[in-house]
Amino acid sequence: MTTVLERPTSLRQSKSALHVEDDERWRSRIGRYLQEVRYDVTQVDNQEEAEELAHRQPFDVYIFDEQFPLRRGGTDQSGSGIDLYDKIREIRGVDLNCVIVSGGNLRRQCNERGIKFIYKGLFDRGSFMTYLKKLH
Fold first, then answer.
1. pLDDT for position 94
2. What distance lies between CA 131 and its chain's CA centroid?
3. I want to staple 17 with a disulfide (CB 3.0 to 4.6 A). Which of 39, 99, 112, 119 is the partner?
């Protein structure tokens, strides 16, 4: 499932975000935050669609959950934000502006790759918004 949240044409900016999250509450929450700082947002709930999108176009920022379905319509949780970062980085051939929002402890793996890590249990909206605004 792909959802595209766009700003009205008069407010549209050149920044775009790919958000991969299978939990609808988090997808809605992060989507709102991205729109507040004028990102055009494309949201998917699985790794397969995210990789297809990454082949077609670059995004200014990538926001991934820790785990999500690998395939469309899947219920498994074998897709990984870390693996997806590595794959898209290979596809695009450049380092990515990326955030992983996770309930798990991926801080070390994220730091090794230059990924911003945000723990869901201590999610700080202000810090997230500041990071996004710095990219503008």
1. 87
2. 13
3. 39
